[in-house]
Amino acid sequence: xxxxxxxxxxxxxxxxxxxxxxxxxxxxxxxxxxxxxxxxxxxxxxxxxxxxxxxxxxxxxxxxxxxxxxxxxxxxxxxxxxxxxxxxxxxxxxxxxxxxxxxxxxxxxxxxxxxxxxxxxxxxxxxxxxxxxxxxxxxxxxxxxxxxxxxxxxxxxxxxxxxxxxxxxxxxxxxxxxxxxxxxxxxxxxxxxxxxxxxxxxxxxxxxxxxxxxxxxxxxxxxxxxxxxxxxxxxxxxxxxxxxxxxxxxxxxxxxxxxxxxxxxxxxxxxxxxxxxxxxxxxxxxxxxxxxxxxxxxxxxxxxxxxxxxxxxxxxxxxxxxxxxxxxx
Length: 329
Ligand code: MRU
Description:
This protein folds into two domains: 7-116, Four Helix Bundle (Hemerythrin (Met), subunit A) (Up-down Bundle), CATH 1.20.120; 125-327, Rossmann fold (3-Layer(aba) Sandwich). The protein contains eleven helices and 15 strands. The strands form four sheets. It has a seven-stranded mixed beta sheet, sandwiched between helices. It has a three-stranded antiparallel beta sheet with strand order 1-2-3. The chain has helices at 34-42, 49-65, 70-78, 85-99, 104-127, 153-162, 179-191, 203-208, 234-243, 275-278, 320-327; strands at residues 7-9, 14-17, 28-31, 135-138, 168-172, 195-198, 214-217, 221-222, 228-231, 248-251, 279-280, 283-284, 297-300, 307-310, 313-316. The protein is globular and about 60 Å long. By secondary structure, the protein is an alpha/beta fold. Helix 1 (34-42) packs parallel to helix 3 and helix 4 packs antiparallel against helix 5. 5-S-methyl-1-O-phosphono-5-thio-D-ribulose (MRU) is lined by residues 47-50, 84, 140, 142, 146-147, 152, 179, 218-220, 230-231, 296.
C-alpha cells in the first residue's frame, strides 16, 4: 500500500502537494509563510475539510515563528474558505494553545496525527457496514489527499478493501473541479482498488439498475440536527439513494460538527469563480459571455442520511439527541 500525503511539515516550512496539477504532475509547493499557506488553501492546491484544518494550523505556526500578530494570522487564514468548519475548529484549537503558552508546533503536529488516527478508526468502524462484494458510489475526493491521511469516506472504502472485502467503487467525476476524476481515481489506481469513473449524472441510472449497494460521502460541516454540507451534488445523490432504498452514509470526524448551528440553511456556502464551470481544465466549454453559477457545496438534510460514521462510533438516523451523545453538547 502506498501512503499518499497531501502535505509534509518540515519544521520551518510546509510542503503542499499541488492538487490542481494531479494526476498529470506531482509538484510540491513550498509554503514558507502563513500567507503562502492561505494562498494554497484559497486556490485549492490543498483541499478537503480535515486537510484544510491541518494545513491552516501549520500556517499559524509559520506566522508565529516569523513574529506576526496571531490575530492577524488567524483572521487571514480563516478568510480563505468559508464552508469547511475544520478550518475554524483547528485555528481555534491552536490559538488556545498559543494563549495558554503551549508549544504551537507540537499542537499542529498533534492535530495532524489525531486526524490520521481518527480516519483509521472511522475506517475500521465504517467498513463493518460494507458487505463483501458491495458496489459503492462516492463523490468528490475524501481520501488521503483530503485529510491528515487515510481518508474519511475513502478511508472506509480503503479499510473495507484491505480487510479483504471484494468491493468496487463508482467514482463521480465531481464537476467542476473534478476531484473525483483527478484525485479519487488517482488514489484508487495507486492502490489497485477496483473502480470506474462516471459522469455525475450517471448516478441515477446506476441506482435504478441495482448497480449501487451504498453511497458513501464525506462532510464539510454537520449541524446539531445532522444536516450535512458537502461537495455540490451530494444532496442530489441523497435524494436518489432515498428513492431507491440505498443506504446513504456520511463519514466525518467529530471536528466536522458545528454544534453552534442548528440547521443546514445556516451553513455558509462558498461560491467559487464562474470560470471553473465555464471551463473544463483549461478549455472553454461555453460561449463567451455565458454566465455561470458555482456553489461549491450543498446541504443534505438529516432525514436523507442513513448514518454518520465518526471516530466515536456510528450515529444512525442522525438527530440532535444522538449527536449530543457522541459529539457532546
Ligand atoms: O472543495 P473541496 O475539494 O475542499 O471539497 C471537499 C469535499 O467536499 C469533501 O467531501 C469534504 O471536505 C470531506 S473530505 C474528507
